[in-house]
């Protein structure tokens, strides 16, 4: 009984390549597609935009309140200056 070492080595390497391709294919199936990744990124950006829009609205309300306060103070100061 004689073994052809080179043939067995080639067969082994061929089988190893097939296993490697199979496992790489499994890994790719677990990863999200580009479309899924883009959808997730868009959803994240939309959520961030929504939060920032709320912050901007709140800041605008504060500024309007400060404008009114400053306007009221200016009227008071002008009234006081007219008295003097």
UniProtKB/TrEMBL annotation:
Organism domain of life: Eukaryota
Gene Ontology CC: mediator complex
One Gene Ontology biological process: regulation of DNA-templated transcription
Keyword Ligase listed: no
Coiled coil segments of this chain: 35-62
Cellular compartment(s): Nucleus
Signal sequence bounds: none
Keywords (A to Z) from UniProt: Coiled coil, Nucleus, Transcription, Transcription regulation
Similarity comment: family membership: Belongs to the Mediator complex subunit 28 family.
The protein, known as: Mediator of RNA polymerase II transcription subunit 28
Protein species of origin: Hibiscus syriacus
Phylogenetic lineage: Eukaryota, Viridiplantae, Streptophyta, Embryophyta, Tracheophyta
């Amino acid at each position: 009984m004689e073994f052809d070492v080179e043939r067995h080595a080639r067969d082994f390497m061929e089988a190893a390549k097939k296993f490697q391709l199979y496992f790489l294919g499994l890994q790719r199936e677990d990863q999200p597609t580009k479309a899924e990744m883009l959808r997730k990124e868009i959803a994240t950006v939309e959520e961030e935009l929504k939060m920032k829009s709320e912050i901007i609205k709140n800041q605008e309300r504060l500024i309007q309140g400060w404008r009114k306060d400053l306007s009221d103070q200016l009227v008071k100061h002008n009234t006081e200056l007219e008295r003097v």
